[in-house]
Amino acid sequence: MNQKKVLYLTVIFWLLIFSGFILYKEYTLRTGTEIILKTEPVDPRDLFRGDYVVLNYEISTLNLEEVQVEDPYFNYNDRIYLALEPENGYGVPKKIYKNPPDNELYIKGRVKEIIYDWEAYESNGMTEDPALKEIRVEYGIESYFVPEGKGIEIEHQQWTGREGGDVKVVIDKYGNAVIKSLLIDGKELKFKA
Amino acid sequence: MFDDDLIQKWLDEGTISDTQAEKMRIDIAEYKKEHKSKRQVIAFSTIGAILIGIGAILFVASNWEKIGDSFKVLLLVGSTIGIHYAGYHFKYENQRYPRLGSALILLSALFFGAGIFLIAQIYNINANNSTLVMLWIIGVFPLIYGYVSASVAGLCSLLFYLWIGLLYMERTDLENLISMKDLYLISGISIYFTGILHSIAEKLKHAEKTFKFLGLQAVLIALFVHTFEIWQYKVEIIVPLIYAILGILLLAVLFLKPLREKSRSLQADVSMPVIALLMAGITLTTIYVPDSYISAPVKFYMVLFNVIFLGLLTLLLYAGYNMEDIGIVNTAMFWFILLIFARYFDFFWELLPRSLFFMLGGLVLLVISIVLERKRRELKLQFSGGE
Predict the structure, then answer these.
(1) Which residues contact B375 (CB under 8 A, 6 or more apart)?
(2) B155 with B143: CB under 8 angstroms?
(3) pLDDT tens for residues A141-175?
(4) What is this model's ipTM?
(5) Taking a C-beta distance cutoff of 8 angstroms, is the pair A95, A69 a contact?
(6) For a Cys staple, A28 with which of A78, A172, B259, B364, CB 3.0–4.6 Å?
(7) Which residues neighbour B24 within 8 Å (Cβ) at sequence distance 6 or greater?
(8) d(CA B156, CA A170)
(9) Nearest to B126 among A3, A140, A191 (CB)
């Protein structure tokens, strides 16, 4: 192939990847519904993207006795769709689905841990299989990137804050979520100039 | 110098005249000077490109708040395209600086990765995400063939290892299927296999050595980790199956007639199916022969892997000398020394008085040097037509 063609094709291919990536996320941000999720941030570091806070949401651990479940059998890495009900701006878990529900606001996630009720199992004389107690779910919004050195500051603020940390996320109609901002004591954190 | 010896031999035999000998000496000296300077340019420009690339990635990682996100994206995407065009220009249009052009193409591949990580950072995509590395590989892989770039082949191999590691961390269920060291051993053999496949067609040959070199290093690292007395060795049935398939595929490709005839590194290449099939056998044994049948299984596997590792190094040394490939010899020597150090600290330290170990070690090295010297003399004799 002619080298000039290789150059053009590479540039077009790269621009498609960059813009596709941006458009995919912008679509969620521009068309989605805004919701607030409760969280507890801690601060580690990514090899390529620097400091970030790990966001552990209340909806990251779903108690199966408290949240309705369409089908109570889960395997590791199963795709789930968590229907959320907005209450005072906050997203409250309503029901866990195995398939995308109709006419409901839902967030897409993957089961990362299954926790069984060992206490009940032992008290029942270990006759039946242990029941599922909780599942840990990842939604792809567990990292919030901050300027170098600011992560520890946020962690500190969150510990001293009275109301703790919240995250404003935008969820599109397909259940994809993008973080919009981090809120400490209800105030949006701003870093950019 | 070897070339001088040869010229002198031809002079003594009367094959060439004094004037011809002098001309040959001047030409050889010039060729060597030119070759050395070419290698220096490649080394400096590649290191320069890597340093700038690392700088760009660190710039993204610092998440500098003084510049807005859109400006940062424009800056990085613009730089990626600009550097890529400059690389193309110097390599193909201007043609006066082809090595600089190749280095700039590598740099643009690094900038492309930095661009992906910048966008992922802006949209807070989860940290240590393997999909981003996969996207980076997909974006730069075609450059290996489009621009005949061995350095991008190296970058893709390293990214592949990184992707495997991140995927393994993301998918914790993989731990139940395969250990990290087996996964890297399989990956290394696969990359080496890719190198072998690249030796089949003339158009792909530029990437052969890079894939083989990086595949071999991963194989050696993974096998080296296997030589420690740390883990109980347990695997699932899928592991011996993968090793067996890889081994058979490698053998089938290696014994293809065109490859067998053309290959200059068949002896070293054969070590890969040997390792793959050996590992298939060992992993199968761990499944069907319970540990209770082996006294001290952890120690047993440690000794076994030490023997395999030593065997592989010996095979590589033999192949390296036979093929006169100093790269393979150096690799084998490096890992041989590392193995001696590792075993000294975790084995001989307790069993033998240190003085005895050093004496023994020295003796082994002396014997090796005698063998190598003899081998070198044989090679020289063979080359000059003597017996």
Answers:
(1) B321
(2) no
(3) 998 888 877 766 666 665 555 456 789 999 999 99
(4) 0.80
(5) yes
(6) A172
(7) B7, B16
(8) 35
(9) A140
